[in-house]
Amino acid sequence: MRKKFPGLLLVAGSVLMSVCAMAQEVDTTKTATVITLEDALKIALSENASVRVADKEIERTGYARKGTYASLFPQIDLTGSFQRTIKKQVMYMDMDMSEFMGGGEEAGDGTSDGTGSGEETGSQAGGFGNGGGIEVGRWNSYSGGVVAAMPIINAQLWKSIKISGMEVELAVEKARSSRLDMVTQVKQAYYAVLLAKEALNVYKEVYDNALRNFEQTRMRYNAQKASELDYTRAKSTVASAIPNVYNAESSVILALWQLKAVMGVELDQEIDVAGTIGDYAADMTYDPSLNESLSLEYNTTMRQLAIQAEELAQNIKLQKFAYIPTLAVNFAFMETAMTNDFKFSNYRWTPYSYVGLSLNIPIFSGGKRWNDLRQAKVQASQLNIQMADTERQLKIGIRQYLNTMETQIKSFSAAEEAVRTAQKAYSIAEKSYDVGRSTITDLNDAQLALTQARLGVSQTVYEFVVAKSNLEKIMGYDFIDDAGNVDLENR
After folding, report:
1. Which helix (H) or strand (E) holds 62?
2. Going by DSSP bridges, is the β-strand pair 33-35/271-273 parallel, antiparallel, or unpaired?
3. Cα angle at 331 between 328 and 336, to 5 degrees?
4. What DSSP state is assigned to residue 85?
5. What is the pLDDT of residue 49?
6. Is 339:139 a contact under the CB 8 Å cutoff?
7. Residue 121: is its pLDDT beyond 80?
C-alpha cells in the first residue's frame, strides 16, 4: 500500500494542476467584453456581411431604376467619323462623254496642255477615262456633329420603368430576408454558447465531486476501510471527468467563434455572453390558439414570391405592348468635308441638319413576339405552382416548430423533477458512502444520473428557444412597421 502512495500523489498532483489550469482559463474569460443578446443583434445589424451585401443590392437596383427613367429623356450624342477611300465608286451614264470634253477625238487625247498622258489628264479633269465611267467622291471624307433622339410613344419602355421599380421593392424585401436570417443565426449561436457554458459548469461540478470523492476514498483506503476496487474506481472517475471538462471548454470556444462569425466581428476579439440558458425557462409558454392565429402575411419568402408574381404579370403586359407602334423624335446637326489632301486649313465644311419623327409599326417578326408572350405566361404559371408549394411547406414548418415547443414545455417539467430526484439520490448515496453503507459504484451511478438530468433540463430549454427563433423567422414580424411596410432600421 505504501508503494502505491507516491503514484497516488502523482495522480493527485496532475489533477490539481488541471484544476489550476482551468481556473486560469476561467479568469481570462472574465476580461472579455460581456454582451447581451440585444447587443449581439445590434452589432450584427451593422457588421454582418450578408446584411451589408443586401444593402448594396438595394443601392444597385436603385441606380438601375434611375437608369431606366433616363430612357424617357432626350439622348444626345456627339458623333464624328473619318473615311479614307481605297477605290472610288464609278458612275456610268448613257450619253456621249466627248461632248463634255470639248467635242471630237482631241478632247480625249489628254495632250492639249502638254502636261502628261491622256489618262492622267482625264482623271484630273473630273474622273473620266475609266471605261467611259465617272469616278465619284474624294479620297478623304470627314463628318461631325450632334444627334439627338427622344421617345414620344413607347408603351414597352413605360412598362419596363414600372418593372424596374418592383425590382427595387424586391431588393428591399431580400434585404429584410437577410436580416431575418441574421437575427435567427445570432439568436441560435447565442443560445449555443449558453448551452455550452451550462454543460461546462455541470462537468466542472462533476469533476469537483469526483475529486472530492477520490480524496475521501484515498484516506479510507490508507486507513484500510475501503477496498482497492473502490480506490481504483474513484481514481478512474477522476480521470474520466477531466476529458469531459476539456471537451466542454472547447465547445464553449467553438460556440463563441460561431457567434463572432455571424455577428461579423474579428475572431480574435474577446467576448462573452451574459446570462444562462436557464434564464429563458420563464419564456417557455404555449398558447394552443396560435395554431389558428398564425399567418404568413409577413413571411419574407411569400412576400418575395408575391412581388415576383406581380413582376411576371407586368412582364406579360410588356410582351403584349410589343405589338403597339412606337413614335420618336429625331434631330441631327452635322458638318461634312470631302478633300483629296490633308490641308485642314483649306477644308470647306458643309452644314447639314434635320428634325423629324420616326414611326415604327410592328408587322411581322417570325413569331418572336408571340412566343415571348407565351413564355411569360408559362413563367407566371410556374411561379403560381411554386407559391402554392412554398406556402404548404411553410405551414408544415409552423406546425413542426409549434409541436416542438409544446413538447419541450411538457418535457421541461419532467426534466426539472428528474433533477430534483437525481439530486436527492446523489445526496443519499454520498452520505451512505461516507458512512460506508454504499460503494463508490453506487455513488458514481447517482452522479451520472444527476449529470444527465441537469444536461437534460438545459437541452430542453435550448431546443425550445431554437424552435421559437425559427418560428419567429417564418412569421417575419421583425423589420415591419405598424403599417405593415418594411422598416430595415428597427426591429
Report:
1. helix 49-69
2. parallel
3. 145
4. -
5. 87
6. yes
7. no
Please provide the size of the chain in residues.
Answer: 491
Any residues with CB less than 8 A from the CB of 103 and at least 6 apart, and which?
none
- 3-class secondary-structure state, position 361: coil
Cα gap 152→72, rounded to integer Å:
8
Q: Return the residue matching grid coordinates 413614335.
A: 327
Task: State the pLDDT confidence band at 102, using cuts at 50, 70 and 90.
Answer: low
What's the CA gap between 184 and 201, in Å, rounded?
A: 26
Question: Torsion over CA of 464, 466, 468 and 469, rounded to 10 degrees?
Answer: 160
**Mean per-residue pLDDT for 139-152?**
92
Q: Give residues with Cβ within 8 angstroms of 279, minimum separation 6.
A: none
Distances in Å between the Cα of 394 and the Cα atoms of 288, 291, 305, 471 are 18, 13, 13, 10
Place of cell 443583434: 41
Distance CA 263, CA 186 (A): 7
CA 277 to chain centroid: 30
Check residue 345 and give its pLDDT: 80
Query: Alpha helices of 223-352 — where are they, by DSSP H?
Result: 228-263, 290-293, 300-320
pLDDT in the model for residue 144: 93
pLDDT at 458: 94
For residue 335, list its beta bridge partners. Answer: 144, 351
Burial of 160 per CB tally in 10 Å (0-12, 13-18, 19+): middle
For residue 149, the SS3 value is: strand
> How far apart are alpha carbons 44 and 180 in whole angstroms?
11
Distance, CA of 51 to CA of 41 (rounded, Å): 12
d(CA 29, CA 237): 28
Task: State which H helix or E strand residue 378 sits in.
Answer: helix 368-434
What is the C-alpha separation between 241 and 244, in angstroms, rounded? 5
The residue type of 93 is: M
Q: What are phi and psi of 52, to 5 degrees?
A: -65, -40
pLDDT digits 0-9 by tens, 224-268 = 887 888 889 889 989 999 999 999 999 999 999 999 999 998 888
When mean pLDDT is compared across 6-15, 325-334, 382-391, the lowest value belongs to 6-15
Handedness of CA 42, 46, 51, 55 (dihedral sign): positive
CA 437, 439, 443: angle at the middle one, nearest 5?
Answer: 105
- Is the pLDDT at 68 greater than 70? The verdict is yes
Residue 86 DSSP class: S
pTM attached to this predicted model: 0.76
Mean pLDDT of the chain: 84
The tens digit of pLDDT for each residue in 427-470 reads 999 888 888 788 888 888 999 999 999 999 999 999 999 999 99
The answer to whether residues 150 and 274 touch, using CB atoms and an 8 Å cutoff, is no
pLDDT reading at 2 higher than 80: no
* Neighbouring residues of 282: CB distance < 8 A, sequence distance ≥ 6: none
Q: What's the confidence (pLDDT) of residue 72?
A: 86
